[in-house]
UniProtKB/TrEMBL annotation:
Keyword Signal: yes
Signal peptide (from-to): 1-20
Secretion system C-terminal sorting domain mapped to chain residues: 300-369
Protein name per the record: Putative secreted protein (Por secretion system target)
Highest taxon of source: Bacteria
Keyword Signal among record annotations: yes
InterPro entries found in the cross-reference section: Ig-like_fold, Secre_tail
Keyword vocabulary terms for this entry: Signal
Length: 371
């Protein structure tokens, strides 16, 4: 789950079919189709590119006579108008600049390991790679449109002498010629939903989950989504989480009985398209409904319930509805279906629900657990 107070990397999910498969996120290993080797001067034999178990590629600094070059080279890939933007996440170990450089080199030749076939197309120093914060990944882009229609090898070359360590992750080839995606639809919590539960299992990390939506099937696809949250009508004064996936949850200092507004931005290289702004209202404080009997019109038992639940009240019950955590009504009982203030919930799946009881122009929502 994601906390609003944190910054998150944009995770790219677009893939292309050609000689190689991108994106490459190194989640389990360095694929055998990739190659690592050192420069033509043969210096830097101790340290080389290696896979890290946390899911990225890493090369350490080394004290050499002149300059060590560590090469990480992709398989051959066909560059087209739909994948001509090279993107990757990068960082280094120290904020200080120790003179290292990262170059991106391209070869249109037939050999993955022939140094002389490669041409430098992008150069960064340590300050560029660090991007203001050491040990924090940031995104870098390289335009390869001049190679459209050709098959290439892509080399990441770290050159240093007792310099810094480099980390690379989430290498991808994206379509830089797309139009902005169409807006997402079908949100949950649905617009104007009430009694949205707050998971207070960990009181220091109040959670609402899930937030879901349906991506557009028209236009160019989104490569990522951002969620915006607020208590204002624009839904943006709390903050934005980038790279947020449908089905995820948000940890925040949620307040009970409060209306929040949210929206989703669908993002690709062509731009960002906002959705409509939706709202939901959180549940009342459960501790008040449980502990202050004078505020209760109804009591239910047993709770948790396996089958039949009884509502204890001196009122005439007119209707009962059962809502899930998304605010969706999944069961409904009218007065003729309620016998001796009892209803049968045997068919409910296990989980948490809300029983909304209406009587004599009054109503109450009670959280119930189905065993």
């Amino acid at each position: 789950m994601k906390k609003i107070t944190l910054l998150f990397l944009l995770l790219l999910t677009f893939s292309f079919n050609s000689f190689a498969q991108f994106p490459e996120n190194f989640d389990t290993e360095l694929p055998t189709t990739w190659s690592t080797f050192i420069g033509t001067n043969s210096e830097g034999t101790v340290e080389n590119w290696e896979y890290n178990s946390f899911g990225y590629m890493f090369v350490a600094w080394e004290d050499v006579a002149t300059l060590a070059e560590d090469w990480l080279v992709s398989p051959q890939i066909a560059i087209t108008s739909t994948n001509s933007l090279l993107t990757f996440n990068q960082t280094d170990y120290y904020i200080d600049d120790y003179g290292s450089t990262l170059t991106i080199r391209i070869s249109t030749g037939s050999s993955q390991t022939s140094h002389g076939d490669f041409t430098i197309v992008d150069t960064q120093n340590e300050t560029d790679v660090t991007n203001g914060t050491a040990l924090t990944f940031s995104r870098h882009e390289v335009d390869l449109s001049v190679y459209e229609g050709q098959s290439v090898f892509i080399a990441f070359v770290w050159a240093q002498d007792n310099g810094d360590a480099l980390f690379i992750d989430d290498i991808n080839l994206e379509n830089q010629n797309v139009s902005a995606p169409d807006a997402v639809t079908t949100p949950a919590p649905t617009d104007t939903t009430i009694n949205v539960p707050i998971d207070a299992t960990d009181p220091a990390n109040l959670l609402i989950a899930p937030f879901t939506w349906v991506a557009a099937t028209t236009g160019d696809p989104a490569t990522s989504f951002n969620i915006n949250l607020g208590t204002n009508a624009a839904g943006n004064n709390i903050g934005t989480i980038s790279g947020f996936n449908s089905g995820g949850g948000v940890i925040f200092d949620w307040a009970y009985n409060t209306t929040y507004y949210w929206s989703i931005n669908a993002v690709n290289f062509g731009g960002s398209t906002p959705s409509a702004v939706w709202s939901f209202t959180t549940e009342s404080d459960p501790s008040l409904s449980i502990n202050d009997d004078q505020l209760k019109l109804f009591h239910v038992f047993p709770n948790p319930v396996k089958g039949v639940v009884t509502i204890n009240t001196n009122k005439t019950i007119e209707s009962i509805s059962i809502m899930n955590q998304l605010g969706q009504k999944i069961m409904n009982f009218n007065q003729s279906q309620i016998f001796n203030n009892k209803v049968d919930l045997t068919s409910l799946k296990k989980g948490m629900y809300f029983m909304n009881i209406s009587s004599e122009n009054k109503s109450q929502s009670i959280k119930i657990i189905k065993d």
